[in-house]
Write a structure and sequence with these properties.
This protein is 35% helix and 29% strand. With 124 residues, the chain is an alpha+beta fold. The chain has a single domain, classed as Roll (Pnp Oxidase, Chain A). It comes from Chryseobacterium limigenitum.
Length: 124
């Protein structure tokens, strides 16, 4: 399946479904952004049973982009420090309307930056 379908969907939709780890049976809708043709998300809820912590335990999962489901591997980006500013800007640009702006300003705070994850589509 073509990775560009996922990238285009994420760029143009605010909520994208994610299924973290093999034990999840349903998709949770979260914010995702695209930077340099790479997919990123930050955990808003810092709970132990969050999607972020589930991916720490099992990096395999799926994202749902409309009618398409993509298998992914979730990783903590090695270049997160270098990308933080551009990821922050993308969150503020994409989620800049209505009540979203307050959450966009929140998700660029350090505690959420530290919970940045990259989703790599398995194209095999």
């Amino acid at each position: 399946m073509n990775k560009n379908i996922a990238l285009d969907y994420i760029k143009t939709n605010n909520l994208i479904g994610v299924k973290a780890g093999a034990n999840r049976s349903t998709f949770l809708e979260i914010w995702m952004i695209v930077v340099n043709d790479r997919i990123f998300a930050r955990s808003w809820g810092l709970a132990e049973k969050s999607w972020y912590n589930s991916f720490i335990q099992d990096s395999k999962g799926q994202i749902q982009c409309g009618n398409f489901v993509f298998n992914i591997n979730a990783i903590i980006p090695m270049d997160n420090d270098e990308l933080t500013k551009v990821i922050n800007n993308e969150y503020l640009t994409k989620y800049n309307s209505g009540h979203n702006i307050d959450y966009a300003k929140g998700i660029i705070q350090t505690k959420h930056v530290e919970k940045t994850m990259e989703f790599i589509i398995d194209e095999s």
